[in-house]
Write a structure and sequence with these properties.
Family: Belongs to the EamA transporter family.
Order of helices and strands: HHHHHHHHHHHH
Strand content: under 5%
Number of helices: 12
Number of domains: 1
Shape: globular
Number of strands: 0
Keywords: Membrane, Transmembrane, Transmembrane helix
Pfam family, one: EamA
Protein name: EamA domain-containing protein
Oligomer: single chain
Radius of gyration: 18 Å
Helix content: over 70%
Distance between the termini: 11 Å
InterPro entries: EamA_dom (IPR000620), EmrE-like (IPR037185)
Structural class: mainly alpha
Length: about 290
């Protein structure tokens, strides 16, 4: 039950944070937004290192650093870049593949064999999410700089975001299966890995853009970091610790449904079809949970 509640909490936190980050992608580079949010989140959680014991195996720390580089450093940057270039709906449409990819990865690499009903639930969730997003034709989109005809450029960023996020989660799950490290500490180590990678990638040229935005926007941005990065990743780690990665990812992928609560802000019409497939999705989640 802790893992289930954590998944929904993480999805809610991430959804709200993305509403704020998306507005920033129109003004600043995705890599800059990702780096600044990770640095601030790391500083908030720095007391977690108190629990770092001398008996902690270096291989687990190394795997978590790699997990942070791939899942947070690369994955979040690709996600933000995708929001910037093709908009929210198309990005989330590709993200609906993540539960299936996560379930296949868990079964292939760490022998997490799921029951038939769980597979059916994951498929229902993925299909429902995709249809819900395809029906959201009234969702306001930013001006995408890439042409619809250029499929490779349109879908490269969200696909890479999905692959990186799942791979980062898989590494975290592997560590939890082999150690007793806490979600709190693993979150901080993953953030450290992401920061080291992004700073190196930028040649130590950090753009502290927070000083250039209004105080009201600064507060919103800091709240989004606390919710989307600190709380979001922490709850995500709880999910990876307590649930098989395929099941956990299906629950974490409910952000599009949660975003319906922000429909007014997104100028999106909630149709009968969206309501139907939301109920169908809940049926899929029930199969997964039970």
């Amino acid at each position: 039950m802790i893992g289930i509640l954590s998944a929904f909490g993480a999805a809610t936190s991430w959804t709200y944070a993305c509403c704020i980050w998306r507005t920033q992608t129109q003004k600043y580079k995705s890599i800059d937004i990702n780096l600044i949010k990770n640095i601030i989140a790391f500083l908030v959680f720095i007391p977690a290192f108190i629990n770092l014991s001398s008996i902690t195996e270096l291989k687990h720390i190394f795997i978590l650093l790699i997990s942070g580089i791939i899942g947070i450093g690369l994955g979040d940057t690709f996600y933000l870049k995708s929001l910037q270039t093709i908009g929210t709906r198309k990005t989330l449409s590709i993200e609906t593949l993540s539960p299936l990819i996560a379930a296949l990865s868990g079964e292939t690499f760490i022998n997490e064999n799921l029951a038939t009903k769980s597979w059916v639930g994951i498929i229902i969730v993925s299909i429902s999410l995709f249809i819900i997003l395809k029906k959201g034709n009234n969702l306001k989109e930013e001006n995408a700089p890439f042409s619809e005809k250029n499929n490779i450029k349109i879908f490269a960023f969200p696909f890479l975001s999905v692959l990186c996020a799942v791979l980062g989660g898989l590494f975290s799950r592997m560590v939890f299966l082999q150690s007793n490290l806490s979600p709190f500490l693993t979150t901080e180590i993953r953030l450290l890995g992401a920061i080291i990678f992004l700073i190196s990638l930028k040649g130590f040229n950090i753009n502290f853009f927070l000083k250039d935005i209004e105080k009201k926007q600064q507060k919103k941005f800091l709240i989004s970091i606390l919710l989307g990065t600190n709380i979001g990743i922490l709850l995500q780690q709880v999910v990876f610790k307590t649930l098989p990665i395929g099941l956990g990812w299906a629950l974490l992928s409910t952000s599009p449904v949660i975003s319906l609560f922000f429909a007014k802000n997104e100028e999106r019409e909630i149709t009968k079809k969206i309501i139907f497939f939301t109920c169908f999705l809940l049926f899929g989640l029930t199969l997964i949970i039970l």
